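User: Run a structure prediction on this.
Assistant: Running it now.
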Amino acid sequence: MRGAAFLCCAVALAPPALGQDEEGHQGQMAGRPIVIVTARRVAEAEGKVPISIARLDSAGLERRGVDTLDDLARVVPNLAMPMVGGFGARQPIMRGVFSPIGAATVGLYVDDVPVQIRSLEVAGNPDLRRFDLDRVEVLRGPQGTLFGADSMGGTIRLLTRQPRLNGMDGQASGELAAVKGGGLTREAQAALGGAILPGRIGARISGYYRRDAGAVDRIDPVSGALLTKNADHGAAWGLRMAVKAALNERLELTPSLFYQRTERADLPFQESGLGPFRQSATLRQPGRDRLLLPALTARLDLGGATLTSVTAWLDRRNRQVVDYSGFFGEIVLGGAVPGIRTPGGSYSRTTVRQRNFTQEVRIASDTGGPVRWLIGGFYGRSRIVMEQRVVEPGIADLAQSQLGLSVEEIFGLPLLPGGQSYHSRQTISERMLAAFGQATWALAPRWEVTAGLRLSRNPLTFRLMSEGPFAGGSNSVGPRRQRATPVTPYASLSWRPGGDSLLYLSAGKGFRSGGTNGAVPVGGCAADLAAFGRSAAPDSYGPDSLWSYEAGVKAGFPGRGLHFSLAAFRIDWRRIQQSITLPNCGFSYVDNLGAARNQGVELAVRAEPLRRLVLDLSLGFVDARFRRDVGAGGIVAAGDRLPYVPRWSGTLAAEQGFALPGRMDGFVRAEWRHAGPYRRAPSTLSAAYDPRVYAGAGSDLLFLRAGIGRDGWRLSAFADNLLDSRAILFRNAELAPVTGSPLREMAQRPRTIGLSASVGL
């Protein structure tokens, strides 16, 4: 691993002494570094927490070239971030717990604030960047007791650098890189923080800009002439501000503001049949995502315990444009004229607005004594509004020329104003109210037991409006409601036989909220519904849940330069929320069907066989399969693998450090990353099965990095994807369902070679 960070998979239990650094930095104990995490909402030594954790500090993130959540998934075994659907949305998968619909299965936090979104094909989670971070903690396995309903597979936490009350610090960095066959990537970051009134008030401000090079060229669909070189370039801006005020000896307030905006000029898709990194969309497909996150954190020393309050407001707006120029010919003409496109082009314009208010209050005991405890309450209010407009005025001429009919004669309805064939607006309003607690008891000198419980109430309301010829007229659904009152327990037992060794057993429950369905016409879909044993589609679907059982061991032999950790787990998942496609009428609904069992291991080994030579191995394996047949019409069969879940993933790295003249130091690092093949549909029986896209290929990538530095400055050179792998990471046929038209694909980004530099105060 890069720097001091390495991926640890099984860790242990007791918290550190009072006053230990709460920002996750390393301390010292008996000459050995102590790595601090806040996986259980209090600062603890990583080796004492009974959770499978991968922790990367800021130096490790930079050294490994991790800039996005997608990059993070490539270096953390049993974490995947596949692209799902034809709109470019990504969704995290941990330990094989995956579902393309409904509430999230992996929690995503910026400090103590959840920012994940329900699974929507057009907008995934915000594309958070490596920007003024202290560290990232990936907590595998259900974290529902302390982090809520959306963490049934695990939780990803991005912990930012906090203002200092004494001294000053700052950093500036930049990067320039060239993509083979593409453009130039540029990045600049700067941060400055320190005491305004020493011991009382401190502040920190940081800014970020990055422009990612494009690699996909857009060509004219008729002539083949180049229209746009490197059309898929993107950009991101970020700003963070925070002030920490120690109002007295007991009370500390930290207001903060985080703003991020990302843009893409076009989707990074190529088309099968055109050759690598070429596509022929009639129109550009830009996207933009803006996130604003103000928060206020208050800490009060109660004498023997600490009260923490976190108040936050999330305001996010995501806009997407997708080319629909071939949609009319495929759907209405049934593919009778392959390759036909709407004159002038047609497109889908989708806007997703997410607004969340969250308030958490918790009290944690001091770390002395045989019993440590934490109790708290959480309130959240979420509102998601998704609006889609399909604009294609040219279909009137296309319908007349191909069928001799008007749009109104074909559909019984004219186009909406502005040439719209479809307009919809859906609103999902959700409230979350929870009380939680957890306690750890040192029942013997080497033994500890932890137990926790969360009680929640999660009501949800859904509304849908649709209109236009493709919607069959004006329709209104709702309000439809769904609610649940889950109980989420957790327990662990750990034993420290001596030294740096730890063994633990744990069991925990994961929970995900239910939801509601849109309208499914009974008349037109009667035969399809009957094939699944239904007379009508359900108005709503319930929550699903899982139980996870884990055993772990971690051992360190500092004298021999060897550390390793191993975690084995089994997950039993039931009443899985699954989308049921009705193949003949074209509608779908969500229901609770089937069960799955996920079993696997995570291994991390770090060895220092020679002076300043570090070898790192991180390996993950998960076998995620459905346990029984689902659906009389054939949805999945017992033994089918869950989609988008590679069985094997891992990294192998070697880093050699060395001394240079002039008191400089340097390093050379090589890292190999592997992700195994997977499936994009659960079964060949599934309505989602398409032999053209079913098999997802694995990937093997090689990364090199070398650097020199002294007294706070560093210069590095790197080569990402050195062997220029062209593995196909994404393949989709949603906008080409009938004729076998060119598929949308995304290949591994070409070889990228660059330089980076940083200087610190």
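Residues 52 and 577 are 26 Å apart (CA to CA).
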